[in-house]
Amino acid sequence: VPLLQAKWHRRMAAVAEGTVILDMFDHVSLMTLDSLLMCTFSHNSNCQEKPSEYIAAIYELSALVLKREHYLPHHLDCVYYLSTNGRKFQRACQVVHKFTNDVVQLRRSALREQGNEAWLRSKQGKVMDFIDMLLLSKDEEGNGLSDEHLMAEVDTFMFEGHDTTASGISWVLYNLARHPQYQDKCREEITQLMQEKETKEFEWDDLSQLPFTTMCIKESLRLHSPVTSIARRCIEDVKLPDGRIIPKGVICIVSIFGTHHNPAVWEDPEVYNPFRFDPENSQSRSSHAFIPFSAGHRNCIGQNFAMTEIKVVIAMTLYRFRVMVDETKTIRRKPELILRAENGLWLKVEALRTLQ
């Protein structure tokens, strides 16, 4: 986050009016990728300071997957991979796989040079990161993960861990820009917390002291769900309220966006109202009315990490900046693999405090 804010301050210093117009998705995606690589892979990518081929490939893959779903002949691999879009898809996959493979191989080389036992000793008193656990995992017979399985896990965590969180953060900032009264209330809460601290850095215990900011984040995740739908296979017959049966084995698409915008569940569902998530207003609500990270045994494995990152980024951003709507831009939802904004999510950003 400090790197992101430093970039914004540099841009503001270069313009006379001190206010800049930024595409939140562009900037926040680089920041979340940088954070994920550092927190889960202990890898310093420096991706915020230079163009990211990986981010560009992720954007292209998201668009191509949606296009493929909407064109029936391309559901056949033999047809799709001969098409122009199919070749673009393969090239983008190669970029993504090379990026994650380079991260994995760098750590594998370090492990090989030090040896597993020496590596584990060096980690004593520290938390092992995600890639350590994957590389050191063994089954009952002492076999580790194959390269194929390892890459599948890393690719999933890398993509899901940065892109969805970037969507969530960007839409929170957009909703607070549209509702300055809520943004000001969040900033008051954050500023009061920071004034009571000796340092200007957020710590774990601070996150529980931001109740209104958390309510604003949850309402944004409801209104603009980063993941709009999920697929689940029924493991038994499911009886619907009207008596119809979904047979065992059928794959169902569960619309998270539809659930979050259902007027039978949410009053005035298109209205941004963070007070929906006041504890008193949440008591009578179904536990499955709000499912931004899915629910049940196959819910998002990284939801705690994601919520923590969103809170920290929003708090640090609102403490030092004011975000405002750019009236010259029209913001329209664009559902792909995640919820994006058509032609970018542009906001005006004004500095309130310098970096300390």
UniProtKB/TrEMBL annotation:
Give the family per the record.
Answer: Belongs to the cytochrome P450 family.
Q: According to its UniProt record, which cofactors does this protein need? A: heme
Q: Where does heme bind?
A: C300
Write the record's keywords in alphabetical order, separated by commas: Endoplasmic reticulum, Heme, Iron, Membrane, Metal-binding, Monooxygenase, Oxidoreductase
- What name does this protein carry? Cytochrome P450 family 4 subfamily F member 8
**Lineage, please?**
Eukaryota, Metazoa, Chordata, Craniata, Vertebrata
* Keyword presence, Metal-binding: yes
Its Gene Ontology cellular component terms are: endoplasmic reticulum membrane
**What InterPro entries does the record point to?**
Cyt_P450, Cyt_P450_CS, Cyt_P450_E_grp-I, Cyt_P450_sf, Cytochrome_P450_Monoox
Chief location bin: endoplasmic reticulum
| Places the protein is found | Endoplasmic reticulum membrane
For this chain, one GO molecular function annotation is:
iron ion binding
